[in-house]
Amino acid sequence: ANIALLDIDAGGYLKGVIDKDALVGDLIIPDTVTSISDYAFAGCQGLTSVTIPNGVTSIGSRAFEGCRKLTNIILPSSLTSIQSETFKDCKSLTNITIPNKVTIISSAAFENCVGLTQISIPSSVTKIDTWAFKTCSKLKQISIPNSVTIIGDKAFYRCTGLTNITLGTGVTTINDSAFNGCKNLTSIIIP
Fold first, then answer.
1. Are 86 and 112 in contact (CB under 8 A)?
2. Less Cβ around it within 10 Å: N or C end of the chain?
3. 143 vs 2, 6, 91, 132, CA distance in Å?
4. Residue 190: pLDDT band by 50, 70, 90 thresholds?
Protein backbone atom coordinates (compact mmCIF):
# COMPACT_ATOMS: atom_id res chain seq x y z
CA ALA A 1 0.00 0.00 0.00
CA ASN A 2 1.11 3.52 -0.71
CA ILE A 3 2.14 5.30 2.53
CA ALA A 4 1.89 8.65 0.68
CA LEU A 5 -1.88 8.27 1.16
CA LEU A 6 -1.49 8.54 4.95
CA ASP A 7 -2.18 11.88 6.65
CA ILE A 8 0.49 12.08 9.39
CA ASP A 9 1.25 15.29 11.28
CA ALA A 10 4.72 16.41 12.40
CA GLY A 11 4.15 14.95 15.89
CA GLY A 12 3.57 11.42 14.61
CA TYR A 13 -0.22 11.46 14.85
CA LEU A 14 -1.78 9.45 12.01
CA LYS A 15 -4.99 11.38 11.31
CA GLY A 16 -6.36 9.27 8.49
CA VAL A 17 -6.14 8.29 4.86
CA ILE A 18 -6.32 10.79 2.00
CA ASP A 19 -8.06 8.32 -0.38
CA LYS A 20 -9.46 5.21 1.33
CA ASP A 21 -10.38 3.52 -1.97
CA ALA A 22 -6.78 3.80 -3.22
CA LEU A 23 -5.25 2.24 -0.08
CA VAL A 24 -5.04 -1.46 -1.02
CA GLY A 25 -2.93 -4.48 -0.11
CA ASP A 26 -0.38 -4.70 2.68
CA LEU A 27 0.50 -1.63 4.74
CA ILE A 28 3.52 -1.08 6.96
CA ILE A 29 2.87 2.07 8.95
CA PRO A 30 6.02 4.25 9.21
CA ASP A 31 8.07 4.22 12.43
CA THR A 32 7.43 7.96 12.87
CA VAL A 33 3.80 7.27 13.85
CA THR A 34 3.09 7.30 17.60
CA SER A 35 -0.73 7.23 17.65
CA ILE A 36 -3.59 6.49 15.29
CA SER A 37 -6.80 8.55 15.33
CA ASP A 38 -10.42 7.47 15.59
CA TYR A 39 -11.75 6.23 12.23
CA ALA A 40 -8.27 6.50 10.62
CA PHE A 41 -8.69 3.44 8.37
CA ALA A 42 -12.43 2.82 8.82
CA GLY A 43 -13.93 1.48 5.63
CA CYS A 44 -10.63 0.84 3.81
CA GLN A 45 -12.07 -2.06 1.82
CA GLY A 46 -8.87 -2.99 -0.03
CA LEU A 47 -6.56 -3.17 2.97
CA THR A 48 -5.44 -6.80 3.55
CA SER A 49 -2.59 -6.58 6.09
CA VAL A 50 -1.32 -3.92 8.50
CA THR A 51 1.86 -3.74 10.55
CA ILE A 52 1.81 -1.08 13.27
CA PRO A 53 5.26 0.00 14.50
CA ASN A 54 6.54 -0.20 18.07
CA GLY A 55 6.13 3.17 19.69
CA VAL A 56 2.40 3.39 18.93
CA THR A 57 0.63 3.37 22.30
CA SER A 58 -2.85 4.34 21.17
CA ILE A 59 -5.18 3.30 18.38
CA GLY A 60 -8.44 5.26 18.29
CA SER A 61 -11.99 4.01 18.35
CA ARG A 62 -13.22 2.51 15.10
CA ALA A 63 -9.76 2.96 13.58
CA PHE A 64 -10.09 -0.19 11.46
CA GLU A 65 -13.86 -0.65 11.57
CA GLY A 66 -15.26 -2.26 8.45
CA CYS A 67 -11.91 -3.20 6.87
CA ARG A 68 -13.59 -6.33 5.53
CA LYS A 69 -10.59 -7.75 3.63
CA LEU A 70 -8.13 -7.25 6.49
CA THR A 71 -6.78 -10.74 7.26
CA ASN A 72 -3.72 -9.89 9.36
CA ILE A 73 -2.74 -7.11 11.74
CA ILE A 74 0.42 -6.94 13.80
CA LEU A 75 -0.06 -4.87 16.93
CA PRO A 76 2.97 -3.25 18.58
CA SER A 77 4.24 -4.31 22.00
CA SER A 78 3.93 -0.65 23.05
CA LEU A 79 0.10 -0.66 22.73
CA THR A 80 -1.67 -0.16 26.08
CA SER A 81 -5.38 -0.40 25.18
CA ILE A 82 -7.75 -1.51 22.47
CA GLN A 83 -10.47 1.12 22.13
CA SER A 84 -14.16 0.62 21.40
CA GLU A 85 -15.05 -0.79 18.00
CA THR A 86 -11.42 -0.64 16.82
CA PHE A 87 -11.72 -3.80 14.71
CA LYS A 88 -15.51 -4.07 14.49
CA ASP A 89 -16.70 -5.75 11.27
CA CYS A 90 -13.21 -6.85 10.18
CA LYS A 91 -14.82 -9.98 8.80
CA SER A 92 -11.67 -11.56 7.28
CA LEU A 93 -9.45 -11.20 10.37
CA THR A 94 -8.62 -14.77 11.46
CA ASN A 95 -6.34 -14.41 14.48
CA ILE A 96 -4.83 -11.72 16.61
CA THR A 97 -2.29 -11.52 19.40
CA ILE A 98 -2.97 -8.78 21.91
CA PRO A 99 0.25 -7.19 23.21
CA ASN A 100 1.15 -7.72 26.86
CA LYS A 101 0.79 -4.06 27.91
CA VAL A 102 -2.92 -3.90 27.01
CA THR A 103 -5.09 -3.70 30.15
CA ILE A 104 -8.60 -3.28 28.69
CA ILE A 105 -10.29 -4.72 25.63
CA SER A 106 -12.96 -2.04 25.18
CA SER A 107 -16.58 -2.37 24.13
CA ALA A 108 -17.22 -4.00 20.75
CA ALA A 109 -13.48 -3.97 19.97
CA PHE A 110 -13.80 -7.16 17.88
CA GLU A 111 -17.57 -7.26 17.40
CA ASN A 112 -18.68 -9.15 14.31
CA CYS A 113 -15.19 -10.36 13.38
CA VAL A 114 -16.85 -13.46 11.97
CA GLY A 115 -13.59 -14.93 10.61
CA LEU A 116 -11.75 -14.75 13.94
CA THR A 117 -10.80 -18.28 15.01
CA GLN A 118 -8.10 -17.55 17.57
CA ILE A 119 -7.26 -14.77 19.98
CA SER A 120 -4.49 -14.61 22.53
CA ILE A 121 -5.33 -12.51 25.60
CA PRO A 122 -2.28 -11.60 27.72
CA SER A 123 -2.09 -11.58 31.51
CA SER A 124 -1.98 -7.77 31.51
CA VAL A 125 -5.70 -7.54 30.60
CA THR A 126 -7.97 -6.83 33.58
CA LYS A 127 -11.29 -6.16 31.80
CA ILE A 128 -13.06 -7.54 28.76
CA ASP A 129 -15.75 -4.94 28.13
CA THR A 130 -19.30 -5.09 26.80
CA TRP A 131 -19.71 -6.75 23.39
CA ALA A 132 -15.91 -7.12 23.04
CA PHE A 133 -16.18 -10.31 20.96
CA LYS A 134 -19.90 -10.26 20.16
CA THR A 135 -20.83 -12.51 17.19
CA CYS A 136 -17.28 -13.78 16.60
CA SER A 137 -18.95 -16.94 15.36
CA LYS A 138 -15.81 -18.90 14.39
CA LEU A 139 -14.01 -18.40 17.71
CA LYS A 140 -13.68 -21.96 19.04
CA GLN A 141 -12.09 -21.57 22.45
CA ILE A 142 -11.11 -18.82 24.81
CA SER A 143 -8.82 -18.78 27.80
CA ILE A 144 -9.38 -15.86 30.17
CA PRO A 145 -6.15 -15.07 32.05
CA ASN A 146 -6.04 -14.79 35.85
CA SER A 147 -5.60 -11.00 35.58
CA VAL A 148 -9.13 -10.47 34.19
CA THR A 149 -11.60 -9.51 36.91
CA ILE A 150 -14.58 -8.37 34.82
CA ILE A 151 -16.26 -9.85 31.76
CA GLY A 152 -18.76 -7.31 30.44
CA ASP A 153 -22.35 -7.63 29.22
CA LYS A 154 -22.61 -9.77 26.09
CA ALA A 155 -18.81 -9.91 25.80
CA PHE A 156 -19.03 -13.23 23.94
CA TYR A 157 -22.68 -12.97 22.89
CA ARG A 158 -23.59 -15.27 20.00
CA CYS A 159 -20.12 -16.72 19.61
CA THR A 160 -21.83 -19.77 18.16
CA GLY A 161 -18.58 -21.64 17.38
CA LEU A 162 -17.33 -21.37 20.96
CA THR A 163 -17.01 -24.84 22.50
CA ASN A 164 -14.52 -24.35 25.37
CA ILE A 165 -14.00 -21.57 27.91
CA THR A 166 -11.40 -21.49 30.65
CA LEU A 167 -11.90 -18.75 33.24
CA GLY A 168 -8.97 -17.41 35.21
CA THR A 169 -8.85 -17.26 38.99
CA GLY A 170 -9.23 -13.46 39.06
CA VAL A 171 -12.71 -13.31 37.52
CA THR A 172 -15.06 -11.81 40.10
CA THR A 173 -17.81 -10.49 37.82
CA ILE A 174 -19.47 -12.00 34.76
CA ASN A 175 -22.10 -9.52 33.61
CA ASP A 176 -25.47 -10.13 31.93
CA SER A 177 -25.56 -12.43 28.93
CA ALA A 178 -21.76 -12.58 28.70
CA PHE A 179 -21.96 -16.00 27.03
CA ASN A 180 -25.59 -15.88 25.85
CA GLY A 181 -26.17 -17.56 22.50
CA CYS A 182 -23.02 -19.70 22.70
CA LYS A 183 -25.11 -22.68 21.69
CA ASN A 184 -22.21 -25.08 21.04
CA LEU A 185 -20.48 -24.53 24.36
CA THR A 186 -19.57 -27.95 25.76
CA SER A 187 -16.99 -27.08 28.40
CA ILE A 188 -16.48 -24.22 30.82
CA ILE A 189 -13.75 -24.43 33.42
CA ILE A 190 -14.41 -22.28 36.48
CA PRO A 191 -11.62 -22.05 39.05
1. no
2. C
3. 38, 36, 22, 14
4. confident
128-139 pLDDT, tens per residue?
Answer: 999 999 999 999
91 to 63, 65, 152, 156, 175: CA distances (angstroms): 15, 10, 22, 16, 26
Under 8 Å between Cβ of 144 and 166: yes
- Model's pTM, two decimal places? 0.94
Nearest to 105 by CA among 82, 126, 78, 85: 82
Residue 97 and residue 76 in contact, taking contact as beta carbons nearer than 8 Å? no
Residues 106/128, Cβ–Cβ less than 8 Å: no
Report whether pLDDT(171) > 80.
yes
- Cβ contact 59:37 at 8 Å: no
